[in-house]
Amino acid sequence: MKNRVLISLLPLFAIPAMVWGAEDVSLLVDNFDGSSTIGTTWEIYSDNNNLGTKVNPFGFEKGSAKSEKGKYGHFFGHLGRNMDPWPYAVAELTLSQDGPKDLSAYKAIRFHAKGDGKTYRVGLGRNAVTDHCQFQYSFKAPKEWTVIVCPLDKFAQPDWGKQIERSFKDVTTVRFEAPAEGDDVDFDLSFDDIEFVTTLPPAKKE
After folding, report:
1. Which end of the chain has fewer CB within 10 Å, C or N?
2. Average pLDDT of 16-40?
3. Domain with 135 in it: what CATH number?
4. What range defines the domain where residue 51 resides?
């Protein structure tokens, strides 16, 4: 997997967790509380290139974005030196084993996130992408729980791979990659209540 070329930070919809809207959940991916989801098991993938990358086992921590009794996903470790053959660290969830999901009816992927203030990427794996050059979107991990809304029409591929039409009719995985600006640095990202939604927050007035 390559990650030498990074996608620039795209416009970010970030909403404080306390003002989480009353919208209906369109498609729940994972809330780490045992509810029905479309995901299977979270897996950690990282380079073995002797660059210093070390990733901790994926954690299910207590005290979620909504409830002290809930749980959330914790992705943390150390990303190695940013040099050839290039470090990477990914937490990836395979969607249900009954084949790719057609998500073309949805407008965004939404989740709670908190972390170390660094820039991360959320990506969607597709059957049509065969060279790891997946569609992804950059966001910053706030210090406190914040609702992150990532419009699907803003997802883009890194420029090092084969460019294909943006479409989400064949999605197989949801993934978080850390961190976009990493060069021999620690990283710490927590996330919760991952879902695909059919509406976007209203545009801010100038």
Report:
1. C
2. 69
3. 2.60.120.430
4. 26-197
Pairing status of strand 108-115 against strand 54-55? unpaired
Whole-angstrom distance, CA of residue 120 vs CA of residue 97:
27
> Which one-letter amino acid corresponds to residue 138?
S
140 in Cβ contact with 12 (< 8 Å): yes
Give domain status of residue 205, yes or no: no
b/e for 90-120, b at 16 or more Cβ within 10 A? bbbbbbeeeebbebeebbbbbbbbbbbebbb
pTM above 0.90, yes or no: no
Q: What are phi and psi of 11, to 5 degrees?
A: -55, 135
User: Does the residue 88 lie in any domain?
Assistant: yes
Q: For 78-96, write each residue's pLDDT tens digit.
A: 999 999 999 999 999 999 8
- What does the block give as tokens for 45? 């993938």
**Quick check: 104 and 169 in contact, CB under 8 A?**
yes
Residues 40, 33: Cα–Cα separation, whole Å: 14
**140 found inside a domain:** yes
